[in-house]
Write a structure and sequence with these properties.
This protein has about 350 residues and is of the alpha/beta class. About 20% of the residues lie in helices and about 25% in strands. The strands form 3 sheets. It has a 9-stranded mixed β-sheet with strand order 2-1-17-16-14-3-12-13-15, with helices on one face.
């Protein structure tokens, strides 16, 4: 098995291919069918015709929170919170962007008239995140006063369009601060077409955290500390996966978050909990046969995941094709369909 380093997952991307806004229609995005080389250029609404009756599509039904909040310190200094997780008793865990960190016990005045008291770092005394006590229900406050947590490479402030389109049509369980972007392409028409083609659907939940954008800083990728996210695979989905396997169908994961959840469940037997699974070339997939995914950042953990799934050389070829054909990249960009490489 070849030893991979960080530079193996780099590629040149013209900045104008980074999608700043969604396509006019969800299913009008382009779809690169990368199951074979050379790949085929398609439109996303053609996906049902590329699958087979009895296949099972598994979606992540997490709902993106309005997790970006603004406020100020008692001194008047401005700050920004990005809520990563909601805890009991009106507490949250958040990233804090501020010129100078306030001391523990400081009560921050937040836009909208509520307060956030700094309780300390998380998950330990020198942890990277911060724990706050809000003056009211965090979910209610985020819904009323929060902003859509657009990724760092989207350069405009959030708009009402983002509130609708940076959310899947089947988002159910609030808790994510980044969208499961491969699922953004599905609309009611595509879902109806899947049903008409005899393709089954199931869902699970993984609350996507800001760590999905965390850069890998170590040339030896094995030294990278993967972020942790909460997931749940409900009994109905467990049964659907088993039934599909028994009947000879394929498991089609919609997005890398669904892949990470299914493979975490397969590796540990735990149907709910936190996962920091890091999928790199050489990983043995136990569940997923096909994957729908967007195009990912260079040198990212997600580039490593898709390379592990479809094969490093194939991914490099597909990305070259996507750049040459001017596909749109990242969260609001286009999608591709991948098949698991033989082991």
């Amino acid at each position: 098995m070849r030893a991979f380093s960080l530079g193996d997952f780099d590629f040149a991307l013209p900045p104008d291919l980074i999608a700043q806004h969604p396509a006019a229609e969800r299913s009008a995005s382009r779809l690169l069918d990368g199951r074979h080389l050379p790949p085929a250029d398609r439109v996303f609404r053609e996906l049902p015709a590329l699958l087979s009756p009895g296949d099972l599509l598994v979606f992540n039904d997490t709902r993106v929170l309005n997790a970006r909040l603004y406020g100020e310190k008692p001194s008047g200094g401005k700050l920004e919170l990005l809520v990563e997780r909601v805890l009991p008793d009106r507490e949250v865990v958040a990233h804090m962007k501020v010129s100078k960190k306030p001391p523990v016990g400081t009560v921050l005045s937040m836009q909208g008239g509520y307060t956030a008291k700094l309780l300390g770092r998380w998950p330990h005394d020198d942890g990277p995140l911060f724990r706050f006590a809000f003056s009211d229900d965090p979910y209610v406050l985020m819904e009323r006063h929060g902003h859509v947590p657009l990724p760092p490479y989207i350069e405009h402030a959030d708009t009402p369009q983002d509130a609708e389109r940076y959310q899947t049509v089947f988002a159910r369980a609030p808790g994510a601060i980044a969208a499961p972007t491969a699922a953004l392409h599905f609309d009611p028409q595509v879902l109806a077409s899947l049903d008409a083609c005899g393709i089954r659907r199931a869902s699970l939940t993984l609350h996507v955290g800001a760590g999905t954008f965390q850069p890998v800083k170590t040339e030896n990728i094995a030294d990278h500390q993967m972020h942790s996210e909460w997931y749940e695979v409900p009994p109905a989905t467990q049964e659907a996966v088993a039934r599909t396997r028994q009947q000879g169908g394929r498991i089609v994961a919609v997005g890398t978050t669904t892949v990470r959840t299914l493979e975490s469940w397969a590796a540990t037997g735990q149907t709910t909990g936190d996962t920091d699974i890091f999928i790199t070339p050489g990983f043995r997939f136990r569940v997923v046969d096909l994957m729908v995914t967007n195009f990912h950042l260079p040198r990212s953990t997600l580039m490593m995941l898709v390379s592990a799934f479809a094969g490093h050389d194939r991914i490099k070829a597909l990305y070259r094709h996507a750049v040459e054909q001017r596909y749109r990249f990242f969260s609001y960009g286009d999608a591709m369909l991948l098949e698991r490489a033989p082991t």
